[in-house]
Amino acid sequence: MLADRWKKLQTYGANLPSAKVYFREDWEVIYFELQGKMFALLSPTVDEKTQLTIKGDPQKNEELRELYSSIKPGYHMNKRHWNSIILQTDELTDEELTQMLLSSYQLVLAKFSKKEQEKIKNNTE
Which first-to-last residue range defines the signal peptide (predicted)? Predict the structure, then answer.
């Protein structure tokens, strides 16, 4: 189940418009990026410590940490803007995790100009 969840998150992220998901050797992590901007990190191995780190709204991040014991402040990240989620949890469904990943992607997408956003959404470079 955990390996399936780990793989599903990578596949979902890679299928978002203009997103790339790859192993980043210098950080030893699976890196999710949109036009050079990071929107998530994933542990490179599957075990009980495997985690997904995603960008989020600071207030929403706090609320999620209070609701779920599997959600912690972002590991090695700005704690206000990033959360890390232990994937071996029954607290969150795969759908909830992919929705959080999508939200992270959308936060990064929103930082681009409207023109760039249209190019990204249409997957044209």
Answer: none
